[in-house]
Amino acid sequence: MVYINPDGFNFGPKNLDGYGISLLVFAAIYTMCLYAACIYLWLQRHHPIVRMRKVGLMLMAVLVLHVFCFFVLTVYVLNGLWPCSVEFWAMNLYLPIGIGLFQAANQQLLLVSRQQTQLIETNDTYKPLLPPRGRGFGTRRYWLWRFKLWYRSISSQGKYEGFVLMGIILQVSGSTSKIVKENPDE
User: Are 105 and 59 in contact (CB under 8 A)?
Assistant: First the structure.
């Protein structure tokens, strides 16, 4: 029978009862299987079906989400080793960052499928590289015009990854400032 303290963490001894041990065994087996699959995928990254995906980004997303899963599985066993604010901070960072990285990796597949659809449907043999003159923010001497050209030169995947990076930075700064405000003396 699992006893959960209704008052929250009691910062007592570790919970090494049957449930705690089964959580640790499951987490260890799951970690070994996941790392074996990640190593196999990394070794097979030169195959065409795997090369189409961004393997590094996908593995980073899976590993960040696995750290979150491992943290959730072991928090019962550790029985209050960390203060609640540290647990909140870790869960507030790992899950959104992992989901953001996973979304960025999946965006690559969407862009590849769109490009393949455009190759099938397009009849144009020529597409101009620069926009026609007379449109835009001004001439070449204005920084906004140069920014527009730079922004157009970036691929859709690069733009999406940039937005994900901005979201990760906002998430880290927001959750860190919340922790600092709650614990100013620590």
Answer: no
CB 80 within 8 Å of CB 74: no
Distance CA 32, CA 65 (A): 15
Beta-carbon count within 10 A of 123 CB: 4
pLDDT exceeds cutoff 70 at 115: yes
In the chain, alpha helices (H): 18-43, 48-51, 55-78, 84-121, 143-153, 156-182
Residue 31 near residue 66, CB atoms below 8 Å: yes
pLDDT of residue 1: 54
Question: Which pair of structure tokens corresponds to residue 108?
Answer: 């690559």
Neighbouring C-beta atoms of residue 100, cutoff 10 Å: 20
Enter the tokens of residue 107: 């965006």
Tell me the range of 33-47, 48-62, 65-79, 151-165 where mean pLDDT is highest. 33-47
